[in-house]
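User: Sequence in, structure out. Go.
Assistant: Echoing your sequence, followed by the structure tokens.
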Amino acid sequence: VVMQSVSEWMGYCLMYESMLSSVLYARDQWLKPDGVMFPSSASVFVAPVTLQRLWDERVNLWSDMKGLYGVDMSCLQEVVQKTTLRSIQVVELHGEDVLADSSCLFSLDLRNTTPLELEKLEGSFSLQSHCATSM
């Protein structure tokens, strides 16, 4: 008997939706010693980006309302700015948005990583910008 489990579990940034611990649990419960796991490794890379289009669409929009519609909504700009900065943003990036080459933050061997190791994940990285942008 061959048992298969197929699931999209990676989510954003591998850790965001906390599904990896469920995958490790399923691995420990049901994967036979000679079983195959796909993927068997995972890495998270980071790179600085500019999100000027997002900023213009979500934050600067509120100060532009008076000129566009004659209604001063600029009092909402600070609230939207804080909300935008404190939440994960899922956006489409273009090549020109990326300000430096990516750097690996951490890699996991999914055949051997334990749930306890997930709680203690840390990494370091360095980046060198290859372009200039205004912030």
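User: And one key feature?
Assistant: The chain has a mean pLDDT of 84.
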